[in-house]
Amino acid sequence: MAKITMREAINQAMRLEMARDPDVILIGEDVAGGRGCPVDDKEAAGGVMGVSAGLYGEFGAARVIDTPITESAIMGAAAGAALTGLRPIAELMFADFFGVCFDQVYNQAAKFRYMFGGQHGAPMVVRTMVGAGMGAGPQHSQAIYPIFAHIPGLKVVLPSGAYDAKGLLIQSIRDNDPVMFCEHKMLYGEEEEVPEESYQIPLGEARVVREGSDVTVVALGRMVHLAVEAAGELEEQGISVAVIDPRTISPLDVDTILDSVEETGRVVVVDEATPICSMASEIASMIVSDGFSSLRAPIRKVTAPHTPVPASPVLEAGYAPTAASIREAVEAVYNYR
Amino acid sequence: MAKITMREAINQAMRLEMARDPDVILIGEDVAGGRGCPVDDKEAAGGVMGVSAGLYGEFGAARVIDTPITESAIMGAAAGAALTGLRPIAELMFADFFGVCFDQVYNQAAKFRYMFGGQHGAPMVVRTMVGAGMGAGPQHSQAIYPIFAHIPGLKVVLPSGAYDAKGLLIQSIRDNDPVMFCEHKMLYGEEEEVPEESYQIPLGEARVVREGSDVTVVALGRMVHLAVEAAGELEEQGISVAVIDPRTISPLDVDTILDSVEETGRVVVVDEATPICSMASEIASMIVSDGFSSLRAPIRKVTAPHTPVPASPVLEAGYAPTAASIREAVEAVYNYR
Amino acid sequence: MNLDEAALRHAYETMRLMRIFDETGRREFLAGNLPGFIHMYCGEEAIAAGICAHLTDADYIASTHRGHGHCIAKGCTIEDMALEIFCRRDGLCRGKGGSMHIADLEKGMLGANAIVGGSAPLAVGAALKIKTRGDSNVAVAFIGDGASNQGTVFEAMNLAVVLKLPAIFAYENNGYAEMTGVDYHCGSGDIAARAGAFGMPAHKVDGTDYFAVHEAMAAAVEHARAGKGPVSIECVAPRWYGHFEGDPQAYRTKEEIAELEQTRDPLTLFRERVMAESTLTEADFAAIDAAVSERIEAAMDAARKAPLPEPADLYTDVYEVYD
Amino acid sequence: MNLDEAALRHAYETMRLMRIFDETGRREFLAGNLPGFIHMYCGEEAIAAGICAHLTDADYIASTHRGHGHCIAKGCTIEDMALEIFCRRDGLCRGKGGSMHIADLEKGMLGANAIVGGSAPLAVGAALKIKTRGDSNVAVAFIGDGASNQGTVFEAMNLAVVLKLPAIFAYENNGYAEMTGVDYHCGSGDIAARAGAFGMPAHKVDGTDYFAVHEAMAAAVEHARAGKGPVSIECVAPRWYGHFEGDPQAYRTKEEIAELEQTRDPLTLFRERVMAESTLTEADFAAIDAAVSERIEAAMDAARKAPLPEPADLYTDVYEVYD
Ligand SMILES: Cc1ncc(C[n+]2csc(CCOP(=O)(O)OP(=O)(O)O)c2C)c(N)n1
Ligand SMILES: Cc1ncc(C[n+]2csc(CCOP(=O)(O)OP(=O)(O)O)c2C)c(N)n1
Ligand SMILES: [Mg+2]
Ligand SMILES: [Mg+2]
Hints:
The complex is a heterotetramer, with two copies of chain A and two copies of chain C. Chain A folds into two domains: 2-194, Rossmann fold (3-Layer(aba) Sandwich); 207-334, Rossmann fold (3-Layer(aba) Sandwich). Helix content of chain A is 35%, strand content 19%. Chain A has helices at 6-20, 55-59, 71-83, 102-108, 112-115, 145-150, 162-174, 223-236, 254-264, 279-290, 313-317, 323-335; strands spanning 2-5, 24-28, 64-66, 87-94, 125-130, 155-157, 179-184, 191-194, 207-210, 215-219, 241-245, 248-250, 267-270, 300-302. In chain A, the strands form three sheets. In chain A, strands 3-2-4-5-7-6-12 form a seven-stranded mixed beta sheet, sandwiched between helices. Chain A has a five-stranded mixed beta sheet with strand order 9-11-10-13-14, sandwiched between helices. Chain A has a two-stranded antiparallel sheet with strand order 1-8. In chain A, helix 2 (55-59) links the parallel strand 2 and strand 3 (64-66). The model of chain A has no long low-confidence stretch (mean pLDDT 96). By secondary structure, chain C is an alpha/beta fold. The interface between A and B is large, with 58 and 58 residues. The complex binds thiamine diphosphate (2 copies) and magnesium ion (2 copies).
């Protein structure tokens, strides 16, 4: 099996699905790479991050659609096309931009099935970039997905690497409900072994990244890698840490988390999003409601602080959780008596 | 002291502040009541719910500003005016509409102070209507404030009645940070005793509506009244229930809640918002983190289900929590052993 | 007037259904039998009728909060609509949508919409589907004068032009957005010209004149079906009632309102012209009126008595699958 | 050319500062010394310079992601700007904003903005403040050609017209929105005409010609200060570099790029005309060039060595008070 980056894995998923199903289209800003310009198809950039490179050359302008800067119209066009039979992938370049277009996602696409009494849903995927780490500042670095998870009718996916990204994206494209597919910008370049062929990973199934019996760490997205790093270090201290990657945050695989908590009784939730009304809160509250009898220590949330993301790299380095801050939290709940 | 409705209390707060400070303006759709029409100032409606009735006649078109249907421009105009010295009150008619304009609130106004290194904030209030109960359907009934609370830089207020609404709104107008002031549409007609003169209620101070030693109920907005009703019934069964109304959900008065939990060890959180990444989750997760040693039972969240708000009144009646569903949850945590 | 008798009958019946549906609905609302808000289309009937006369079930419309007329024109069954505005179990949306969200996908009716301006991007999406599939249908967005100021609508127009989509932007200028007059809220005072500046043909017609709307739409549909891109049509037709039921209309005079029924009734105008220029008679119209009234009375009656949703319906159709 | 020598010198120095600030910043970025993204203003200097020549500290501008030129034209100190793009503790925004969020409220510079189209409503807000206070200042929004398609921008224009605000919409048409050409993304192909259809005077000028921009802005400012409402100016001036540093520009030819420096350099054009029509000489310009280079070199040097923010700064200035 070849090692490829998450960028390539996402690209493969789109290519496979577009080849399989003519109703799958990709629409967004520069997803082809500069329409209206004297651009060579082969060199078309395929998005600012190159994630859709090559698709324009392969599927043409009718299915890989560059748009103006017009997020409401992009999301609405995807929603309307999905309602009438296509399976659009709409790119919201940075998730931070949801504020100019969210109505078409949350009041329209997400509610069609319900408010139209089950007549039809909106089988669309919004691919969007999340997360800090590039020094891109307050409006290009947010992990805003708790807001997506709050919305009934949306599903929300947050892969931590290339393998999951490919299988989850293929599944998301085939799903008959709208899916917010959140890609962490710092993971695009990370490599994993990924089969060339098509495969699906169901939405709503967590991955137990690492078994462990003393403390359960539930970590999201990029945080999974830091949690695994921390777990390795803690093992040397004799603390056995389970690491769970929910992969999809809505629906959330409650059972896998509760099973682990039943064994450990101690929980740390790690997320890069800001803490209030976050997935970290959600997971902790789910456990104190449904896993209370197993709980033997306070649940620690390790998250970004309740602040915007600073541009300064030194400040940004202190913004998201680190392996060290995870380790410290695990030690604290482990030692709680 | 006269009994007045929450509608009148909010109106009074605006009137008092506009009279006191010429920099306070009100801007929004129909907040005057139909500019450009041959309307008599005295009869100008003052908003679809009549909340700003009379202000146009009193302060004129320069300070009570009707706009087109243009929420992004309304929020942006308020943000820009606040950044440069005014103290705008901007009306977002229904909070459900945040999806067409949230960027100007969350990426702009809420981040100015931080991303400009403390130079200036945006002293503005967004007054907006929330909640179910009118049969207004999926796009006009949401309790979407958990999304506001998630955002660093915003404050979020949710009064449960006329007295608090007046004091909190005056405080919010004087606050130097942007405040989302959420008015529950089913409370506008509810009366309470309210002093005529101006008074302020600090943001971040909960109100202990009812003391109690067996179970702590934290209830938000309209839910406070149902919690009090349930508590009264439970008292007859010999269960002593404390009811806490946070009043401001960001900042949240953590201490008042934890103090009560220390005594009761048992908690029910009641909110009309949908449950995932909600204030109910937030409050529960805060308690399991900071009040774990006191906890003697699972925390029960009593919320709307993870569904849109149905238009049908019979379905809507089952949507939000009721005194009965609160009572049941309290009994469950009370009887937990 | 190059419409045959059947077309004329159909047009009138459609408008009459709209009129009586809304006036009956209004009575039911004022009697407390309908939940939520209800918005009367009276005075604007010729718009939806003239626009949708050119459409089949394979064409799409995306509608507004004031959507009953659009539904009827697009062929939704009155009986199913009545069930929905009463929020009954067997309504078009099973009672979950209500008046502001009626939809009927089989008829190409993509939903009333309680978000002002929400319809435009959705219609562009339907037009995108049409173009992607290589079909020659069209998608129409109905847009109020007030909605014409919403950013989503401007964006939708530009995108439709850029992608050369078969989208038609049907502006319903009824004079007001809630309580605010169009002379105030539309800065340029000219909705059609503004649409034209986005790079598409822009018509402006008297929306109380069925024939004027019909003609403009004929041109628009031809343009769009030919793959020449979007078109806009501004139809001017004052609304007769308040914004929603309960609106005291302090913002306009009693005289203004009274005059509307006298001089700007699209049904009267239609009847008079048709009687003058075709073989249809007073009696023909009276027969249609009677049939319409009977049908709507029966539909409303049935809806009033129809079963309510079951409590468990609250939880269904949020997702197809969620676990 | 009715500008005196001091004004000409100032204009040139301003543009030269922009040019060298960005070219030096570019070197620093490519050397890995700057975080985030950086967007070059080279080729567009005459726009910000010509617009802001008419403004004082009491007027406002709201800027874009490509904001360095706007800052300089509005009077922000180069040294403080350098500190900010290096994200240093004593930068204009204490290192929390960086290149895409530089702001200087004392100079009436309301911030670069990393949300495309974010500036327009904010400028309208500043104009609302001006009108509410009864002042005669103006507020300018800089808006890219790409941004001109964003709903927020359309809404801002309409609201400014409706409320008759002293807002000026300065469109910077540099030919591209990221990789997408303006001929493609703007459906009508005519940004100025589209703005005009919103109901305001709309100028279109060569944005590489300082004098053309200056003249159009003179008229705009006069109009706005007189209380006659908003104005728009489309300034056409191609950008020289990629969208951001790192953009390989596969979407345009090497020849197109090469030609720009030859034929569309606003500084060269300015110098040539001024030398022909005034007493300023080659030597005068050379002296300015030398002084600018020295100053910027020193500023960048100082910034590189300046102290970083303290870890605790992460938590400050989220709110004034929060508890
Ligand atoms: C985004 C949004 N803003 C505001 C409203 C409240 N609202 C409902 S209808 C309406 C007026 C709409 O006016 P217009 O578009 O002219 O349609 P009309 O009611 O005249 O048919 C307003 C402001 C809304 N539903 N959605
Ligand atoms: C709302 C939003 N959408 C997309 C982007 C990504 N983006 C940043 S700059 C840019 C192009 C802007 O083009 P234009 O307005 O012409 O300005 P220019 O870069 O040419 O100065 C895009 C698409 C963004 N920052 N914000
Ligand atoms: Mg109207
Ligand atoms: Mg550009």
